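Notes from the 1:1 (GR / supervisor)

We went over the backlog. Supervisor wanted to see one worked example end to end before approving the batch request, so GR pasted a single chain during the call. The sequence is below; no edits were made to it. Supervisor asked that the structure be written out right there so they could see what the output format looks like.
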Amino acid sequence: MTKIGVITFPGSLDDRDAQRAIRLVGAEPVALWHGDHSLDGVDAVVLPGGFSYGDYLRAGAIASHAPIMTEVIEAAGRGVPVLGICNGFQMLSEARLLPGAHTRNAHQQFIRRDQKLRVENASTAWTNAFTAGDEIVIPLKNADGRFVADDAEIQRIEGNGQVVFRYVDVNPNGSMNDIAGVSNERGNVVGLMPHPEHATEPGFGPDMPDAMRSGTDGLRFFTSALAALLSA
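Structure output shown during the call:
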């Protein structure tokens, strides 16, 4: 069975939700600890959301140097699929596995909402179950979610197709170019601020036109990873 690791850092809030999403698509979640020196042979890795230790200095800055991140960086270099959600996205940026950085939301407030996104790149390891142009709704909750980069970096990632998701209708945190998620050039590492693991089961996801809490758009992130691994 395909094994997908979920790393818990001190302050992680959504590791169990990510594990549940992995089970729902028929893979085996493997709990990993930030102090570990091994990924235990997993086929893919998820860095979940929350508020990791050291975020008061800069979100994800200290956690990006945790012992297990040496293994994550090495695995990403080999093409292993890696997904960073919210704080996990911040860690991947701080570890330079993903471009850009994150600063305090433009309005200086924590925000939570069901957020509409547009899929810009459906060819990554975590988005192949989508079609470019798809609009999806998944929950968002962050205080330091504003994606920033210098002009040259923005032009580079836009030109390379590394922008994977954009905010639609509302830019909730002032992110440049409405960027909600990006990938590395290879497409095996993806990070986004909204939380797909909170939109995987009917009755627990965002409100949709057909019913309250019926949104399951996040499930396709995990089916994408499984498909990418099975086709490798």
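Supervisor's comment: The CA atoms of residues 70 and 192 lie 21 Å apart.
Batch request approved.
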